[in-house]
Structures are given as structure tokens and as C-alpha cells.
Amino acid sequence: MQLTGEPGALPPAAGTPPPAPADEPSSPAAPAPASEPTARYRLVRRGAVVLAFLFLGGVIAWFATHEAFSWRNPLASAKFSRLSDFAGTEQAAAISPNGKWVAVLASRGGQVDAWVGEIGRSG
């Protein structure tokens, strides 16, 4: 029995094919692994980054110009006036969604009543 290979290596079992030499490739048609991305991949990646930045810039511009997110004070030109002249305590005032009516809870003489009046009209 003749031993081949590295010193200290066990002989192959009976019926197994001998291992291929290390300097021969196992499959000659297999391409070498690519270590760098292709030019097309880099172009697509750059295009995606540019589109993402353009989209982000558009969203920021929309938020900056949209009036719902504006920093302006909505009460800057408001005119305030007294709504009632009750002698008692008034609380929990609410204005209607259309801005034409106001409701107030008022305590006159110990009893709390709800009062409704039209805004801009006296009496």
C-alpha cells in the first residue's frame, strides 16, 4: 500500500474517487466572483439616490409653503369685543363651526343657564 498526499493524512476509503488536484478548477465555465459592481448597477444606484433627494426636497418645499403648516398667527387681524354684560359668572364659551353663533354657560343668581347668541349682533 502506497500513501500519497500530505504527511499524516489518512488514505482514501476504498471505492472513493481520488480528489482533484488543487491547481485545476472544478468547473471551467463558472465565472469568477465579481468584487466590483457593474457600471449599470452604479448608474441605477446613483439615479435612485438623486430621485430620493428630489422627492425629499419636494416634500420639504410643500410643507414650507402649505398654509396649514404656516407659522403665521391666525389671530393677527382678529377684533375682540365683549359678548355679554351678565352680572354673574360666564364660562365654557364655544363658537359654532361657521363662526356665526356663540354659546355660553352663565350663572345669574346661582342658576347656570346656556345662552346662545349671534356673533356681531348686539342685544
What is the residue-mean pLDDT, rounded to a whole number? 75
* H/E element order: HEEE
Reported for the largest beta sheet, the result is:
3 strands, antiparallel
End-to-end span in angstroms? 124 Å
User: Residue share in helices?
Assistant: 10-25%
Which range does the strand content fall in? 15-25%
Class inferred from helices and paired strands: alpha+beta
Number of strands: 3
Task: Report the total helices.
Answer: 1
Shape: elongated
- The parts where pLDDT drops under 50 for at least 5 residues are none
Question: Strands of the biggest beta sheet: in what spatial order?
Answer: 1-2-3
Radius of gyration: 43 Å
What order do the helices and strands come in, and which of them pair?
Blueprint: H1 39-65, E1 89-95, E2 101-108, E3 111-118
Antiparallel strand pairs: 1-2, 2-3
Structural features:
123 residues, alpha+beta, 3-stranded antiparallel sheet, 1 helix, 19% strand
